[in-house]
Amino acid sequence: MKRHFEDLQLGSIELFCLAAEAGSFTAAAQVAGVTPAAVSRSIFRLEERLGSRLFVRTTRSIRLTDAGRTFFEQCRQALTQLVEAQQEVMGAQSVPSGQLRISVPTTYGHHRILPLLPAFRALYPQVSVDVHLSNRNIDFVAEGYDLAIRVRAQPDSSMIARLLEDAKLAVVASPDYLRRVGTPQTLEDLDLHECIQFELPSSGRRISWLFNVEGKEKEVFGQGGYCCSDDVLGGVTLAKHGAGLFQTYRFIVEQELADGRLVEVLAPLAGRSRPFTLLYPHGRYVPQRVRAFVDFLLEHRQQWAAE
């Protein structure tokens, strides 16, 4: 393997990252235990080696350039991996520890992931968990996430993808709504009903309802005067209060179906699903806290599949 760091020392990169995080050479120097002049000289040599300015300097502050921001995002992740690899070799990571950052869709987080976290932390009390509940796509490197869960994740060679479940869909409505409007028996009957829509926040596109017709998937775009975006639970709440029909994941409404607050309709045409996938960056080194959480979730796949 060819050497790449004869001149470009890791110590200079570390000082650069400290300065970028602190927004100040002086603050970086205090953390590193060196003088501000030493930080400035180190970063200047780094810029010379790279042939690019990393900071815009004024008399009062420093600011990353576009090149500096890109370099910082990559270096921060690389330095974190080096520290964790060193700790593992030295035995400090024989037990999973550190902060685990996860990005999870809102609904899946509330109904699947958050209820499991106390059990996970009981097994691994030295792991702290930071959960970001959102339906937007994230940048693993720039935002420092360890894992993400996504519905219908697109193939990505930089990511390891593990299927968690194919979540079954169901069309539901309140008993009051069905008494007032009637129960649909065919897909054509949907034209006579209030079909609550869900809009993807990333694209503004309303998602279709999926059905199983003679073994083939059929998409239906219903019409209605209600539309929710970003949080599927909004559609569920509308359905519970008699606004209309709504197609959602069965695991979200299991309790409401069991106690009668919601009723499933068009059950003979059900059977469609959407996949939820666990994603984490592809690399030679995966921290033990990430491995532990991946294994923990995969143990629950059979339980979810049986529901």
Order of helices and strands: HHHEEHEHHEHEEHEEEEHEHEEHH
Low-confidence stretches: none
Summarize the main sheet: 7 strands, mixed
Shape: elongated
How many structural domains in the coordinates?
A: 2
Q: What's the N-to-C terminus distance?
A: 51 Å
The assigned CATH architecture of the largest domain is 3-Layer(aba) Sandwich
Structural Rg? 25 Å
Beta-strand percentage? 15-25%
| CATH level-1 class of the largest domain | Alpha Beta
Domain HTH lysR-type: 8-65
Protein name: LysR substrate-binding domain-containing protein
Family: Belongs to the LysR transcriptional regulatory family.
Organism: Pseudomonas agronomica
Q: Keywords, please?
A:
Arc Repressor Mutant, subunit A, D-Maltodextrin-Binding Protein, domain 2, 307 residues, 12 helices, alpha/beta, 7-stranded mixed β-sheet
Quick structural summary:
The chain is 39% helix and 23% strand.
Outline the secondary-structure elements:
Blueprint: H1 10-22, H2 25-32, H3 36-50, E1 55-57, E2 62-64, H4 66-90, E3 98-104, H5 106-113, H6 117-123, E4 127-133, H7 140-143, E5 147-151, E6 159-173, H8 175-181, E7 197-199, E8 209-213, E9 216-220, E10 227-229, H9 233-240, E11 246-249, H10 250-259, E12 263-265, E13 273-281, H11 288-298, H12 301-305
Parallel strand pairs: 3-4, 3-5, 7-10
Antiparallel strand pairs: 1-2, 5-13, 6-11, 6-12, 6-13, 8-9
